[in-house]
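Methods — Computational structure assignment.
A single polypeptide chain was analysed. Its primary sequence is given first, followed by the predicted tertiary structure written as structure tokens.
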Amino acid sequence: MAVIFFPRRRGKMKVFEIRLGKTLRRDGRTGSLHPWIFSGAVASAPAGIPPGSLVKVFDAGGAFVCYGHYNGGSSIRVRAISQNEDEIPDLDYMAAKIARAAAFRKSLALDSDSWRVVFSESDGLPGLVIDKFGDFAAMQTTTAGMDNLKGELAKIAMRECGVRGIVERNDCEIRKLEGLPATKGMLAGEEPPGELVITENKLKFAVNLLHGQKTGFFLDQRGNRVSLAKFARPGMELLDAFCFSGAFSVYCASRGLSSLNLLDESADALDLARRNMSLNGFGGLPVEFHRGDAFSLLRKFRDSRRSFDMVLLDPPKFAPTRKDAEKAERGYKDINLLGMKLIRDGGILATFSCSSGISRERFRTILEHAARDSGREIAILATLGQGADHPVQLSFPESEYLKGYILRVQ
């Protein structure tokens, strides 16, 4: 067992050594390994390693594999951080990674004041997510290792993101898999006002960092909102299911849509959508707000023979992990079949899955089955995914969580 001194922390932090049960061969093209090491791969580890401890991993042949954060209570035992034996992931290492991630996002020159600064494994910092919203930021630490460091990481993020305050949004379900409690509140700096107004592609959106869904706003759909709005025309009617903030509807309204229907089971979400329509000067448009379960309401529309020129389906995760995929497939097929049946001839269906447990190929197959059962002719007009500030790491396919299509229905 080695001991390493972290200059930005008081005292010393132990680095435990663990060994895997097989000899690993790195990918000859990338030299990278998948950043997750599951419990079944660990052959030996010291007893009583505290959750979130730094470990140095060796394979069965004694070759160095990685440094990472360890959690004996999780099925993912190690989250690899550094795969270079000379690069020990202390706080200076973390700061350099955050700075690099922040610089990359700035280089994208997004037409927005808000973006994802750090995207977990895709930025080499598993378990850390930082979203910037104007002068403030929201942080999630979804692993024990990052959670142990969240105070120091918040200070680093304040500097690198150039924000006035960092909000903790650790009320996400995924923390339960790591044995971590749900928490939210201030981590560093000033507390943001109850409502922030951010700008995206010259449109305005209200964000509540402490009480909104996710980390406040779905930044990953920025480009997809632009893509869908290109198909909107005056005289068309939109049904926006699972609307949350109504951001897709705002974009489509900016293209002259005649009438909109926004659907969500949350009264708070519908209030937020109303606020965003008003912020952008669309409060006077004919808009119907429908509160309730999307499956039930879509069936009600179908049974009453209502139809629309555009239907948007952007549901929450039906399959957070692969073990949930089979059950989720039925949900995705049902909701898309209903959507296809509600579209007028020649209309547009935009549909998404944000489930990590459903691959892009599987999602497309689900849509093919729904199209067959609908009896409609369906064509793909655009294939969509998450924005460039949410990069997909090729050595970590799970980072491609958002899949979407714009379809023509005839």
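Note: The radius of gyration is 23 Å.
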